[in-house]
Amino acid sequence: MPVAVKGAVALRKALKQYTPDLAKQLPKEMAVALKPVVKTARGYLPSQGSILSNWQPRENSQGRFPTYAANLVKRGIGYKTSPSKPNKKGFRSLARLFNKTAAGAIYETAGRINPDSIFVKNMNNKYSSTMKGRDKMQGRALYRAYEENNGKARDGVLRAIEKAKNSFDKRTMVRS
Amino acid sequence: MSNIIIDVAAEFTGQKAFAKAQRSTFNLEKSVKSLGKTFGVALSTALIVNFAKTSVKAFAEEDKAIRSLGRTLKNLGLAQSGTAERVNAFIDTLSKATGVLDDDLRPAMETLLRATGSITKSQNLLALALDISAGTGKDLSSVVAALQKAYLGNNTALTRLGVGLSKAELKALSFEEITAKLATLFAGQAAEAADSYAGQISKLAVAADNAKEIIGKGLVDAIGMLSSTDSSGIDKLTTAMEDLATYVADAVRGIGYLTAKLNNVPGIPAIFQWLADHKELLGLLGLLSTVGEKQRTAPKPFQTGMSVTGASDYYTKQAADAAKAASKAEAAAAAQRAKLAKAELAAKQKSDKLAKASAMFDIEKIQVAAALKGKISADEELRLKLQQAILNEDADLADSLQKKLEASQIATAKLAASIVGIKPAVDPFAAWLSTLEGIAATLTQILGMPLGSSVGGKKNVPLEPQDPIIVPVDPKKPETNNPDPTPVIVEPNPKEPPSTNNPFAGLGGSTGGFGFSLPKYLQENLPQAPVTVNVNVEGTVVTENEFVKVVSDAVITANTNGYNNNRPGAVPAGG
User: Fold this and answer.
1) In A, which residues are within 8 Å of B312 by CB distance?
2) Is B561 a domain residue?
3) Which of A21, B255, B316, B509 is the most buried (most CB within 10 A)?
4) What's the total number of domains in chain A?
5) How far is Cα A153 from Cα A136, in angstroms, rounded to an integer?
């Protein structure tokens, strides 16, 4: 569950308008907190050589199930620090981690509903991967890395926002 | 499309529909403002006139209310010097504090005064009415009317206010109890309402109303001044005010018209623009304008409140971590305390054991314990137990035992005192001896001789009193060669009887205890006292030479018989 922050989008706008250097500094500091999770998550992905033989890239005509291309999947895991558009519930994300490729998502979540399927069994036997996390945030790569991060990334992001806010307040304070 | 996303932090900005509604509202507000601006100038004249009228009206109404209140106080007999002023001051203060118009407070106060006839009670009830009004949302006049009725004994009106009192309560409770309960239920409602935004606005309204009244008073005073000289003063004033307002409006309209016309003149807008760019040239006006602009565009502190909410709230987490650390520290301290207590208990147990063990070697205690196991009287047992308790430092037991012992001693003393009073018992055998002596005398008379035992075939030989003990002694024999026992010299003690193995000694007679006596010839041959008894120790005494000779003979005999005289393992001499 994400942490709900109030006023951060306005802060970003204000930073951009009045203190551009702080506006640049904030995403950098957020990135410092988020990068370790991305790095760890990429490390949990199987390499191309160790992928299941039937999951290797093939001609498109041969099937529609997404194939696993290690380099693409690894590149598909990343982070974003710019505020997103509001989702249908009205929330704007301030910092997010994602695993955007289909194959990466399959590797991440396969076995949540059918843990005894042959594909999942083969995958588990081959990579001895484990799923970590809770409920919808349970996975083998990104969710696992985030779970093992123990909230350090989240704390780092919040600390960065708070630091930026404090710096901004100090600079823009009107002294009589 | 995959949807593997972790939102680390997010902000609720509202749904799209909200934004749309907000935008529409904003546009509408903008339009209304614009419309207001458009109509503002046109309406300004009428507004000024209306304001003047309402101000005068407000002042007149207030004046009327004050007069009415003063009359009520007078009618109730409460109009001492300055009372009306104090009541009015109270109402003004209350009005400012609560944001309720004095136009409402004065009639309310008047109503309550008529009912209670007391200023203090009315003030208290008015304050309560304000609280109830703020709490229930009912208007003040309704609440005051209900309270007035309740004061006069009709509680039904209070049920309609919805103040949370049942009919049964209203029927059972007195007015004082009801007001006390209401005061508890609605305590601080008016103050809380006054602190709210609505309350602040009400306060502004009160201030505006007061201002209106003050202005109205000023106008009326002006009217008064005018009317003092001319009866048509008010009409003149009104006309003058309207003329002034019309004049101002015309002037504004004229500026607008002039500006519009000047804009059409070539070069004039450029002049205005140049003047706007060089405000400093406009003197004080320009300076003020520059300052104002700077103030308007100066960056302000970032006012948007930052807060973090949610299940995994950052600040909540920080607080939780702090609480966790505190509880952990507390648990550690508790564990340390428990450990110390345990160690202390163990040390105490150890010392108890040592004390117990050392008590085993405490001679005094051992003696007491041993004495207790023996056959002792109850009193002795009590004493020993007391001693044991003292040694064991058991104060309670020692105290109880001491009391028991004291009781026992008192009882013993009483017993001893009672024993002292008892007469000694008479010897029942005292008369026997004289009886026996009488019998013996009778027998002696019958026999013609004294009574005796047969010794050596003779009977009834008269006894010789005070015969010595006879021991065979041969004093002429040398001691060393005498195989007989060494004689022992026994000196007869005339005062004490000689020691003897005879168990019947002393029962009768002078020698053997049986009343026998030695024959005459023996008595003559026996040496007279002192008697010497020699006792010889059996054995042989030899000289050194004799002993050496005996040993040498024994060695020779052994050698002759072939016995080995050497120690086992020893080397024989000369061998």
Assistant:
1) 1-3, 151, 154
2) no
3) B509
4) 1
5) 19
